[in-house]
Amino acid sequence: MLMKNWKSFYNWHPNPPFYYGWLALLIAGLGAFVATGIAQTVFGGIQDFIVEDMDWDRKTIALAATLGTWSSGIVAISIGRMIDKFGPRLIMPLAALIVGIGSIYLANIKTIWGFFIIYIIIRAIAGPSLQNLIPRTIAVNFFSRQRNLAMGITTFNRIFGESINLQIITTLASKYSWRFAYRSLGFITIPLCIPIFMIIRQKPEDIGQFPDGDKEISEAKKINNQNEQILTFKQILQIRSFWFILLGEFIAGVSTTMLLFQIVPFLTDGGLSQQRAAIALTVGNLLGGISVPIWGYLTDKFTTKRIAALILSMAVIPTILISQLNIESWGFILSIIWTTITGSILVLGSMMYGTVFSRKSYGSVAGLTGPSRTAAVGLGPTLGAYIISFTKSYQPIFWGSAIGYLVAIVFFTIVNSKNTEK
Q1: Angle between the N-to-C axes of helices 133-142 and 345-356, in degrees from 0 to 180, rounded to the nearest 10
Q2: Three-class SS string for 55-124?
Q3: Mean pLDDT value across residues 185-206
Q4: For residue 246, how far is the Cα from the chain centroid?
Q5: At residue 410, does pLDDT exceed 90?
């Protein structure tokens, strides 16, 4: 009887009046909220509170963010493979629990080594499990025709979580302390494990539905789905477009995060208040998050390559202008414009992988690219901090990012989206 009740409980799921995939994306948003409290963007925005309390410098916080991000990339390889084989249902709530407890511990840390160890552990788990790899795999598994729109929503979830967490932590840290802020977020996080466990599934077939909410699929598509195989890492590495996307994603990622982590210090050093700079980052992040599903919708209608080239081209203009104009007069609005445009850059590679690989191998592909992606995201803050420290200027990182965007356009343009898994 006990086993029967447990099985009934485990198999239960709500029956919304709309396609279940949209509910799965909503709940994945809870996971994103959990993970983004310790995300790189948020850390960049609140780093001065920690620096002042711990008597460190900005390079120390940047190094912690870098190591945490790189660790998440290494962990992503294993998680990507596990997702393709076992699904996300147990991994996501367990990760949320670890992040919640870890945030509480982080709030009590007094030493550099303790701070680094706790932060790196929770960041390594949160990144792939709650913030990027698993949510994007859910989008790929539940959607076909609207895949990039769904993937855009997962990115919006992440950016919205970053924006909300940035304001929560900034407000609480200003009024109380950064320790109080992270302790509060930890206690908020732990109960969220329950709805994540109850609702998340690996694919629509698990609850008797089809991708995109279709009532039925053609016989040819059924056969194609049955013939899909989980590619080995060796097979994935033999596809040239995989490498083109990887290089474009890496360069664009370094270019974006190098500026993103320094945007608040850049604005405050230029004369804006800490709160006004944080508002600029928050507003830009939110607008960027809102724009990502729109870009995703457009890539579903047109081609991912064209939209990627358009976004990267648009990013070059504010990147150059913000470094040349008066910060007090133009910094606030230009930083919002820049953050709005670049909000979708970090998901472009994931969208392009979805046009090259099938859903049965997407988790493995995303996991395999995890080290490169997180190396880029992690390298950006540290590289930017050391360039600024060495040159005593922000100018080199702005010009370097503009050039990086142009190079990324070249790599994305030569991707062959018609590659198939043979």
Answers
A1: 40
A2: CCCHHHHHHHHHHHHHHHHHHHHHHHHHHHHHCCCCHHHHHHHHHHHHHHHHCCCCCHHHHHHHHHHHHH
A3: 88
A4: 16
A5: yes
Q: What is the pLDDT of residues 87-121, one digit of tens each?
A: 888 889 999 999 999 999 988 888 888 888 999 99
Prediction pTM value: 0.71
| HSE of 139, CA atoms in CB hemisphere, 13 A | 31
C-alpha count within 13 angstroms, C-beta hemisphere, residue 263:
36
Please give the Cα distance from 75 to 374 (Å, whole number). Answer: 10
CA distance 345 to 152: 11
Q: Is residue 50 left, alpha or beta, with left meaning phi > 0 and alpha meaning psi from -120 to 50?
A: alpha
Instruction: Categorize the per-residue pLDDT at 225 as very low, low, confident or very high, splitting at 50, 70 and 90.
Output: low
DSSP state string for 209-275: --GGG-S---HHHHHHHHH-----HHHHHT-HHHHHHHHHHHHHHHHHHHHHTTHHHHHHHTT--HH
What tokens appear for 303 in the block?
């081609």
**Amino acid residing at 131:** Q
Contact call for residues 298 and 307 (beta carbons, < 8 A): yes
Cα 20 from Cα 212, distance rounded (Å): 9
> DSSP readout, 277-300?
HHHHHHHHHHHHHHHHHHHHHHHH
Distance CA 299, CA 230 (A): 25
Segment 264-286, tens digit of pLDDT: 888 888 888 877 888 888 888 77
Nearest to 49 by CA among 268, 226, 356: 268
